[in-house]
Structures are given as C-alpha cells and as structure tokens.
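Hi C.,

You asked whether I'd gotten around to modeling the 458-residue construct. I have! Everything is below, sequence then structure, no commentary in between.
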Amino acid sequence: MTEALTPQAVSDAATTGPVSGAVPPAETPESLTPKELSAEDVEAAVHAIADRSRKAARRMAQANRAWKDRALHAIAEALVAQQAAVLAANAKDVEAGRANGTSKALLDRLTLTPARIDGLVAALENLAGLPDPVGNVVRGQTLPNGLRLRQVNVPMGVVAAIYEARPNVTVDIAGLALKSGNAVILRGGSAAAHTNAALVVILRDALESVGLPADAVQTVDQYGREGANVLMRARGRVDVLIPRGGRDLIQTVVNNSSVPVIETGEGNVHIFIDESAGEDMAVEILLNAKTQRPSVCNTVETLLVHSGSTVLPAVASALKAAGVTLHVDDRVAQALAGTVETVPADDDDWATEYMDLDLAVAMVDNVDAAVNHIRKWTTGHTEAILTNNLANAEKFIAEIDSAAVIVNASTRFTDGGELGLGAEVGISTQKLHARGPMGLTELTTTKWIVQGEGQVRA
C-alpha cells in the first residue's frame, strides 16, 4: 500500500511525465519529464507552486461563505457536465492498474463509476449547505480591565495532501479546503494520474468561473516521488500536510516531513458481539460492516464473539455465503466444526487490515477480554459493540480509546459524510488538534482577537 512513494511508483511517474490535462508549473519547460529534471529544478518548481498557493490562500481567507459556496456548486455542476471525460480518464488508470497487477482492494478504491461521481456531487452540495467555520467564535469574554477577547476559527492557509489511488479524495479534500478558506496542493500518485489530472482541471476552471483563484487547487503529481519529498520538506510554505493511504505511506510522511502532519491511520476495526446481542441485528450489521465495501478503512477486520452468545453460527453462515473467508481461533473453529468452512488464525491475522473479504474471528469470555484484545491489536480507528446490556455498553465506551466507538450500528458510519460533516479529509487516529473524521472545522486553526481602549499591562 505504498504506491505513491515506492521506487516503482517513482519509475512510473518518471517515465510517464506530465499527464495531459495536468497544470504545468510556469517555471519549468513542459517538454521536460521529472526524470530529466534535476533535484534542484524539482525543488524550485514545487516551491513556486507552494508560493502561488500561499498567495491564493490569502484571497480564499477573505472569501465569504456565499462566494465559496458558489465555487462548490460550480465544481458539482462541472463534474456532472464532464462525467464522461472523467470516467474515460479513470478507465485508463484502471486498465493500467489491472495490467500492473494492482490488488483488488486498490482497484476498487481507484475506480470511479457514475454512482460514485453522483456521491461526490452530493457531498459538494452538502458542503455548500453547511455553515462556514471561518469566523466562528470558539470562546470569548471581557476581562476586568475592559479588554474584549475572542478566539475565532481561521483557515490553516496552505493544506497539502499525499494519497494513493483514491481519485475521490481529490474532490473531497479540495471541496473541504475551499469551504474552509484554504488553498490545497495535491499529490495523488501515478496510479490515478489520468483521473486526477482531469479532476484538477475541472476544479481550477470552476474556481476561475466564479472569480476565485485557480491556484487555490494545484498538484505536484508531475514531479513524482521527488515532488512529494519536496512537499514534505516545504515548511514555511505549506502549513499542514495530510497523508491518506496505507501504513507505509503514512509512516513515510510522518517520519520524513518537516511540515506539521495530521496523521490519518489504518483501520484494524473490531466488532464485539456481546452475549445479549440479537441474531438478526448481528447478522445485518456484520454483513454491512464487512461486505458493503471491504476495501475502505471503516470496514470491520476482526470479530470478537462472547462465549455465551448463540448468534455465531448464523453470523458465520451469512458471512461465508457472502464470500467472506473466516480466519478463526481454536474456540471458534470448534464451535463451527462441520457447519462453516474456516481457516486457522494466527497473530498476523489479529494485526491485519485485510481490506478484502477476509475476517479474523475470536471467542472471548466477557467484555473485559474483548477490551483487552482490542487494546492489544487496535490501530485506534473504530470499535463497535453489539449488546442489549447497558452496563456493558457503557463499560466498552469508557474503556476503548479509539477515534470512534459505536454501539449497535455498523462501523461503516465512521465517515465524514455519514456523520454530517459533508465529506472528510481523512480519519485521524492521533489525539492532537483533530481526531476521527476530519471535516471543515478540522481544516481551521484559531487566533485570538483582543480589543481594548488604551489598556497597558501593570
């Protein structure tokens, strides 16, 4: 899952060169490919992009809600009008991915369909309907000396994103960045090069059509891995960097970036079926959480079943009928012997984010054992309990330290759109500034406004 930063990806980007429809930097001859450019040339070009982004960010910070919403509507309309061109570009990327042996899960993330484009359009329209976070007063007071204080939300400035094989992220991040008054620099990777290039042109044209700077959306995809590396080191030019992808990509960005990073995490997601959970609810939730879209990070990867529960045979049979391979411990294997085909699980299974139709299953004796298992193996993304026991639900909520804790619902709800945020930049599993699905507010910071009438400090 390191496509955006692996040597193979660098080679792909270098041999491909600038993609048709991408926005070339004015300072670099379009005839040169990244392979032919020196490291110094790439650094200069990416810095120039960042400097133009900073200039655009100053204009975006002054745009009012109506102006930004017009841009979001314009992008939505352009996506509808140019859907055929976007799908044609995406088909090239998907075909190349299949030829290169890209995994099924990554191909699913890479693929756009009319329904998925409709989803992007709906998310943009939803964003336009949400309140503008900029200028929101977080807190305020008047001090005894008469100073009037306000802490207000303001844009971050220049937001950069490094992600892989996820063209929907191009639109989601751009929409969120624009609504929150920021400029954005994108590095979407060679796997989605044609799709991202087409989308960036649509985004820039839509911004210009409503009088906002096109440079509020830019890409460094044409500079491959070295462009990403320069972006990670562009402290002072880029205000925050958000990686979105597999563990290796995220850790590469975290460990090599001098730009502040909001870390999004992989999703080793758990569901615990308590003794009191009903069969119908358990079957429906597990099927949704595992099979609706197995390649995404809020899909369940480990099922824990209370030893006193009676729902395991029905849940296992339903999952198996849906094509799920069950990786089970000895107790589950014994309970299902002769009824449902399984394979043995080991420690690797408890640590694995499959992102496919595979599920690790273990049996535990109580909620404490479930919590202990989760604490050992969790990535801090999402955990759920299915129960009719209020005390166990409250215990689970109190003792699980993840970005999202869910009671009696599918883990697929850990999503910015589903939680009413309009869309999401990613799901943060860290604890500083942002945690869980990151929407508009998470792309703002705050500043203090102090108003006085000549006061001086004693």
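If it helps when you're writing up: Confidence is low (pLDDT under 50) at residues 1-32.

Thanks,
B.
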